[in-house]
Write a structure and sequence with these properties.
seven-stranded mixed sheet; Rossmann fold; Arc Repressor Mutant, subunit A; two-stranded antiparallel ribbon; 3 domains; 47% helix; globular; alpha/beta; 9 strands; 332 residues
Length: 332
């Protein structure tokens, strides 16, 4: 826990980037370079070095960034970058008293209780997956989706966040038209800005929209990425997605990979999933009076059950390997 917090500080203040770009430094040199307090930097350096993230020379008192650690700590958007995770941890730990109250009284935590860093962390994590996996590795497993986009079809991402999925796809499939819908105006504002910067605003449209209030049209491909398990009404959400999906369309569902029995989840990410559920996924759903599926509440069996109830006829789990997510191709 403390290591992640120290990493979050290094990420937020640009300390990792300073060491990678400007080379080894004592705490005083780092203070001169960054304008930060030397005493605080000195303590941070000791902590990060003892954790093994940085190298420390006891003779020169200089700290340095191991070249092998740069992809994880500095290369924003790269396949190994972990800065988003550091932000997320720091962010969803903040409404601690609200979580304790929920244990005592029920209910849950409102989205507004989470700081900007949490949402930035989510966006950074999504960016890593979409930039490095979605187009190059996941789409080739869905040739019919590829064909629809290559032929100028329409694609809608519900719960699009900052819009990274639609933007990356728009760069790869210039003939298609992409739409991103999200409940939060700030997400849509950021998505529109990024689309402009990436040069795809002519074929990507972002709108503030709540899927719980219906759908804005029908599309060749609809998608949700890490959305359904968070929803207050996941069954209602899937029924809305069926309405949004054309009869010959395809629904692309990405959600957390988990087991039927929560107690059977194992591996290094099992505790993370349950902790994330308590601190955000489950509690935010319960805070809206919802089902509270939680991070490990939507295994493949429930995907098939809920999809069938919503009017979809087939569910195919794709043969991808990812430490956190499972991917499905679902058809009406």
């Amino acid at each position: 826990m403390m290591t992640i917090r120290l990493c979050a500080i290094g990420d937020r203040l640009g300390l990792f980037t300073d060491l990678a770009e400007n080379g080894p430094a004592t705490s005083q040199v780092m203070a001169d370079r960054t304008g930060l307090n030397e005493r605080y930097l000195r303590e941070w350096i000791y902590g990060m070095s003892l954790a093994g993230y940085l190298s420390f020379d006891k003779q020169s008192r200089e700290v340095s960034m191991p070249e092998a650690h740069i992809p994880a700590l500095v290369d924003v958007g790269g396949p190994l970058y972990q800065g988003g995770l550091f932000k997320m941890f720091t962010g969803f730990m903040q409404p601690y008293e609200d979580l304790i109250e929920s244990f005592e009284k029920g209910g849950g935590i409102d989205y507004e209780a989470y700081p900007d860093d949490f949402w930035k962390g989510l966006e950074h994590n999504s960016c890593v997956r979409y930039k490095n996996l979605l187009v190059s590795q996941w789409l080739p497993e869905m040739p019919d989706v590829q064909a629809k986009l290559e032929n100028g079809g329409t694609f809608a991402d519900f719960g699009c966040g900052a819009g990274r999925s639609s933007i990356e796809l728009a760069k790869a499939y210039p003939k298609a038209k992409f739409y991103g819908f999200d409940l939060f105006p700030k997400n849509i504002e950021n998505a529109r800005k990024t689309a402009e910067e990436e040069g795809v605003s002519d074929r990507v449209e972002f709108q503030v929209h709540d899927i719980a209030k219906g759908v804005p049209g029908q599309f060749d491909v609809v998608a949700t990425f890490d959305l359904i398990h968070d929803m207050a009404d996941p069954k209602g959400g899937l029924k809305a997605l069926r309405q949004a999906c054309k009869d010959d369309g395809i629904y692309v569902l990405m959600d957390v990979d988990c087991t039927d029995d929560p107690a059977d989840n194992e591996g290094p990410l099992a505790v993370f999933k349950l902790g994330a559920s308590l601190h955000f996924c489950m509690t935010s759903s319960l805070g809206q009076g919802g089902m509270g599926l939680g991070t490990v509440g939507f295994p493949e069996s429930k995907v098939k059950e809920f999809s069938s109830e919503a009017g979809f006829s087939s569910v195919r789990r794709l043969p991808i390997e990812h430490p956190l997510n499972a991917l499905y191709e679902i058809r009406p």
